[in-house]
Queue: 4 jobs
Job 1
Amino acid sequence: MPVHRLGFGAMRITGDGIWGPPRDHDAAIAVLRRAVELGVDLIDTADSYGPAVSEELIAEALSPYPDGLVVATKGGLERPGPGVWTRNGRPEHLRVACEDSLRRLRVERIDLYQLHSPDADVPYEDSVGTLAELQAEGKIRHIGISNVSVAQLEQAREIVDVVSVQNRFNLTDREDAEVLEACERAHIAFIPWRPLETDGLTEPGGVVAEIAERHDATPSQVAIAWLLAHSPVMLPIPGTGSVKHLEDNMLGASIVLTDDDLRRLDEAA
């Protein structure tokens, strides 16, 4: 399923701390609808965002979904309380989680369903195998995985056709560079979470601040432009609860960084 290389992450349309409903319900709906108007055709969410709230808002704002729009969601994390994220990769939980996401998103099949994180208490092959079963039952179209090592990626690929990996990656955190390289070799989409982090690089005189000023851009736009230039399989999904911030982020795809810009940013971390 082809999508543009700049999607939208729907984590921050929920309440503070990714818990409960947003402070401004209508603003959250407006952000989702504006994202689609701007050409976004991949919206990423998870059952744990809210929990449940993000999926419900997506369905309210966009269902019935326009042709070509991919709504991706995730299962495998639970939210027993604000600020608490616990892993649950048990097959029985993933089955219920998938069924609940189908209902909230108002679809008969989820285009991209991602295992949110490996669970140390559950054999990884059991969790991934459950997604394979749900795919065979027609409830999932494509399978992705998240927060994985290279070894876990290869283990999952022995069980299913993995089309995406979602790990943390940004200008200041490239710890998963080897996972990105593995995705490049296998032509698997790499979806970086926290794509806009630029810790310490936006201070006056910092490399991001200087490059942003020269391109008449924001640091966030430079971060997006760098990600897109860094790898052909990179698929950033910056998220926000503000239409203005959404519009600003989308402009990051139009910035053309010079070779010198890229060299300096590559060396900045």
Note: The domain at 8-197+232-241 is CATH 3.20.20.100 (TIM Barrel).
Job 2
Amino acid sequence: MILLRNADIMQVLDMPITIESLRAGYDDLRRGDAAYVPRIDLWSPTGGDDDDYYQSGSMSGVCRSYGVAAVRIKSAVLKWLDDGTVERFCREPGTHMGIILLFATRDGVPLGILQDGYLQHMRVGGAAGIGADLLARADADTVGMVGSGGMAETYLRALAEVRPLRSARVFSPTRDNREAFAARMSSELRIDVQAVDTPEQAVRNAAIVATATDATGPTFDADWVAPGAHVTCVTRRELGPPLLERSDRIVQLGVNSIPYGADVPDMEWRAGANAAYVTGQPEERARIPSGRADERGAYPTLLDVETGRAPGRTDESEITLFITTGTQGLQFASVAGRTFQLAVDAGLGQHFPTDWFLQDIRS
């Protein structure tokens, strides 16, 4: 068994490798050689602050190309803030917990434990890049970015991999953050990235619009989106009915969670419209936002478009929307599977005897 921390993973996983490994996973899925279990959450009162709730989430997948099964688990306390955002942390603000357990499908042996922070950002950004490659105009060269955190960085890196970007405009509420983002990404990608003072300045006339925030509601006005633009998001929470109505073509990455209304005893659909099991008394449960109706829609998937079962962009003036949620378990299997191979080749990680994780009692 090998423990790979974020610092290890950063040494071997870049955006081209991320996109390559995701494409391998989706090729497997198309052939019937991959599968994934959608996300299911578990909620419990913390017993402390009246404004918070404990949440764990899990998802899993198998990727035959890399011979692995992966289970991703995250554990957090959530607080819903007055500014419309949600704060997530483990133990204390600024500290987070998420791991990927990796197993060999050949013999069932546990291979690794990977921290999920950096890999999570990369796989989401990479998937957005694949969606843009499928749906954005071939000449799309400007990006309007809402958000300036880690996800926004990986989104812009991925978009730069699939389209000949020449400029981007970024807005986030904190001036220092957006200006630092603009300086950092201008230097890294060698394109003109400008920080702007409003989301409208970022979105108007952009060929690609990306929203990568922790907002719990829409982050921009649908009327600002130009004809022919491609829009992509991190979560459905960042979307609203006007954008869904204005979009000519909506495609989702895949199935994100158990579909709303499925006949599963005791299952609820809470924040982000994710299927969940909830503990707590009625007044405690009332703290957790319910998923909005516009977060529950089902649309053709990436594979539907790639296989011709559903159309992609058919006109240069169409507004396309790619909802970058779904197939997470497969993404973790494919990206973590490839990362594990590269890390082993590079001699990275902390090693533990595999026998520590095996037993002679049948479970």
Note: Residues 2-119+328-357 form a domain with the ornithine cyclodeaminase, domain 1 fold (CATH 3.30.1780.10).
Job 3
Amino acid sequence: MSRRAVALLAVLVASCAARDTTRATDELPAGVAARVADETISVQAVREVARAQGITPAAARDRLIADALLATAARALPWATRSAERSVLAREMLEELALQARAREAPTDADVERVTAERWWELDCPASARTAHVAVLVKPPADEERARAAAEAIERAVRGASEPRDFFARAAAVPRAGLELRAERLPPVAADGRVVPATEPRRGDPTHFEAAFAQAANAIAAEGTTSPVVRTSYGFHVILLEETLPERKPALAERRVLVAAYLARERARELTEKEVGRLTSASRIEVSRAAETLTAQVQIAPAQGALRP
């Protein structure tokens, strides 16, 4: 454990011990609800916290005492105080930049059109199909007829399969004479081939499927049923429709609100990058050569339920 961590732990333990020695007294001045070391907690502050947080005055007083104890601990550690001040001031600056970004004029029609095109999956998303598929791959052209025949046999075998596990198992049981079979569950795809992301697309994610596949997937009549054999540049596919997703096209008024929020975030990011660049050019910055080695020793536990990056 580092010296700073040990020191912080010692101060916090001391603070907790101080809290254990809390005593009732009649010696406090009028209007003062509690005193922690040299810091006083007013009755008015207790009332305001109780009202704002919907808690009892006693609970509000205890929270203010806990805050005062932690503040005392921070003051005992100058490095912690400096760190807290930096965090607060940086947050103030970011909030000011965010206010400046939101103060810009309302989005124009051109803004709405541009952002709608850029973020179509949120603002102008067509209906799409979430699917699973099996494909008999065609590598040398000589495999064409054998691959077609194997795909047709698979199409017959998977009729009646309504979920991916059964669908894949039935397909895998069909003889393929050594031809390669690919089996996958796929993200939603619109009829025009666009892959519909659930969130902000990551770099490297697929953006389009071949038109023949996308059209066949969206032509399947009912969820839990399969397509005829479909030819793409990869080979011969049979597709299982898992889910049909409806279009998402907010009305123009709602889109304007969403676009305004997006543009505010975009402007805030631009303002922040500009300000950081200005400050970087005007400031002397030194980084320890050992910084990477030291920070690599910090273990960060993953948050439960966190998605992969």
Note: The radius of gyration is 31 Å.
Job 4
Amino acid sequence: MEEKKTITKGRVIIAGAGPGDAELITIKLQRRLGDADVIICDRLVNHEIISLYARKDVIVINAGKQGYNNASISQEQINELIVTHALEGHTVLRLKGGDVAFFSNVLDELISIKEYDIPFEIIPGITAAAGASAYTGIPLTARGFSQGVQWITFNPSADFSAEKWKYITASNDTLVFYMASKNVIYLAELLLKYMSNKDTPLAVIEQATTPQQKVNITSLEHCAKDFMNKQFDSPSLVIVGNVIKLHEQFKWFIGENIGSLFNEL
């Protein structure tokens, strides 16, 4: 009688690698990096983290996704990589830039993992906005400046209604826009339609928390003039609000602006 083969499933760890600085990771992630057989890594992860804490024999798969880049690996391919390696009995670490819950495709990956009943855990990370806020001296909320924050993804295909823009701009909340730097002039034009104060500060922060960090500050009214034909290095974050006025007083981290730290794929 032929003996049936049993499949020993591995496990999947979905973890946030923080905004860029290799020291801005959790102790738990540091330990899991040492456990991993396979690391499936986002484009916006600092590979120094892997060099410092992962095993030397770990398999590293760069599975970068990038807007406006047709060469990017699809989410379906990433899901398949995770499942395939886990079903081979490996401990798979899915390493994502920032935090896993902020504007990532974690839901797609979780659905794929659950479909095959693979054990998993989720480890949070420092999201880009928190890192940018700390390393620029721009607190996202501050007494007398802002009592709340709105986190928004923006690109021209977002197609927000007029009612949505009115809601976004109705308070004095700090507005944090992910994935918006390529279209920041268009974003400023839209905000000007709904915000009464044309002098509201706007900042584009490039490669926050890394030696390549650069802070670009203007206002909604002058965004088009100041940023015309300007290309911002990825990852970049857009912050809009009066809290930006605190940057000059409380800035402490000065980047060297020596080129991109991150993979382009």
Note: The CA atoms of residues 65 and 74 lie 7 Å apart.
